[in-house]
Amino acid sequence: MVDTPGHSRPDTQSQAASVALAEAVLRGERRALARAITLVESTREDHQDEARALLAALAPRAGGAIRIGLSGTPGVGKSTFIEALGMLLVEAGHKVAVLAVDPSSARSGGSILGDKTRMERLSRHPSAFIRPSPSRSTLGGVARRTREAILVAEAAGFDVVIVETVGVGQSETMVAGMTDHFVLLMAPAGGDELQGVKRGIMEIADLILVNKADGELKPVAEATRADYSGALRLFRKRPGDPEGYPAALCVSAVSGAGLAEAWERIAALDAARRESGWREENRQRQRSERLRAELEEGFLARLHALPAFRAELEALEAGVAAGEVLPEAAAADLLDRFGPR
Ligand SMILES: Nc1nc2c(ncn2[C@@H]2O[C@H](COP(=O)(O)OP(=O)(O)O)[C@@H](O)[C@H]2O)c(=O)[nH]1
Ligand SMILES: [Mg+2]
After folding, report:
1. What are 293-310's pLDDT values in tens digits?
2. CATH number of 62-277
3. How far is the CA of 67 from the centre of ligand 1 (A)?
4. 173: CA distance to ligand 2 center in Å?
5. How far is CA 334 from CA 235, 292, 294, 317, 325, in A?
6. Which class would CATH give 7-60?
7. What pTM was computed for the model?
């Protein structure tokens, strides 16, 4: 990298610190992992230089995990499910990292407390690592940090990474854009509710799990599963999967029923997608998309950091809002004066 005036490079001391931290992460030290993710999540400019040095050191050793996106509305049982599936996996010898993504919630600090009590056994297990959502950030900021946290967890030796998100706004698409397989957790529901399920999320699901298939909800759950199973066939063939269409299964996070089968499905899908080359192609596509998103966000952030730009934007915005200037003309004017040529 070339040093350019006005852009500070990390000093040798912080570079040495990054190297030491990277080595501790690679040895699998938990506290180092937590510190590394904190560094990656930091918005401080000096931390970002350190974080880049850290990630450069870790990236060659990352990439080894099955990356699973998991989504579902609040209360569907995500935390309970992750605790149960996570315990099953760590007891089978896996190392499981759980990263939560909740861009919608300013109170995510509060909800993760509830989650920690639902994931009590898993959070205490030496082969598990649970990390709440980075808060106070844009969707793009959350996407970057979570993507980087995945790399750090992989470098630390975690072979299963679950990225959990509540089904709000764009967060599912974002999570699907950084994982290999996307699992949707659903509640048992009547046929009418099925009509209301967003089409977009059905299109990205690789596996639908109808949770709470226990007690008196069991027959409803089975009917719901059959409905989803039929609906999934209307959407698409599943890329990279010889089986064809995404499956819908019943599980109970509380009783543990169906969890082993759900995991077998995910593992089989992963094996097929590796074998066919789809998984690597998908990761390549994801990296390219991230590059473009970073560039777009970075350009915008730099523009907004210019006081002259902000002043001009505000002035023009008033005219645009009042209908005196067309939005397109105002944007073209601003781009001419401030945009790169
Ligand atoms: N009967 C039943 N209840 C469940 C199951 N999984 C979760 N729950 C309950 O559903 C509620 C919400 O669970 P939680 O894991 O916090 O959902 P989250 O908001 O999606 O993380 C809690 O009261 C759980 O005990 C299940 O498989 N069966
Ligand atoms: Mg939860």
Report:
1. 999 988 998 999 999 999
2. 3.40.50.300
3. 23
4. 19
5. 42, 22, 21, 11, 13
6. mainly alpha
7. 0.89
